Hints:
The chain is mainly alpha-helical. Helices cover 66% and strands 8% of the residues.
Amino acid sequence: LTLGKRVAADIRKKEKIVSETDPKVLKLREIAKRLLDANPLTKEEPWEFSFDIVTDKSLNAFALPGGPIFFHSALFDKFVTEDQIAGVLAHEMTHIRKEHWASSYADQVKRSLGISIILILLRANRTATDIASISNDLLLTLPFSRRHESESDVQGFEAMVKAGYNPQGMAD
Length: 172
């Protein structure tokens, strides 16, 4: 929770954040409230969601540990329907609720430790160590990331439907 809040505060200081009174931000937060009302947090979920738009030309949205969610303005401007916004929001909220960041980090640490032990036992040189690191990223980390993305798609889909949004929005 603290890490996400700290990173979010840093983003808010360094990046141009769209005003809280901007109609786009109000719309984003309205949709988020509807999603949360239909899919309330449980007692085991201590998340403190926040929803902001960063002025940025890339097509991206991302979630931080504990609840902060940021949309880039270029992505938000591409949306035609509330259903599309709800699809991305529900997806990002699932990343937070499932703590994907924590399991990804733990898995990566375990794999890196295992690889390091093997390399030490084999007395590998720097080149072998670099190749092992790249292989870890490409062959092991990427599939875990895809698993989390798929889970966020499926559960985000269910959350948006439960909130009354058209699931076509997620596909769009």
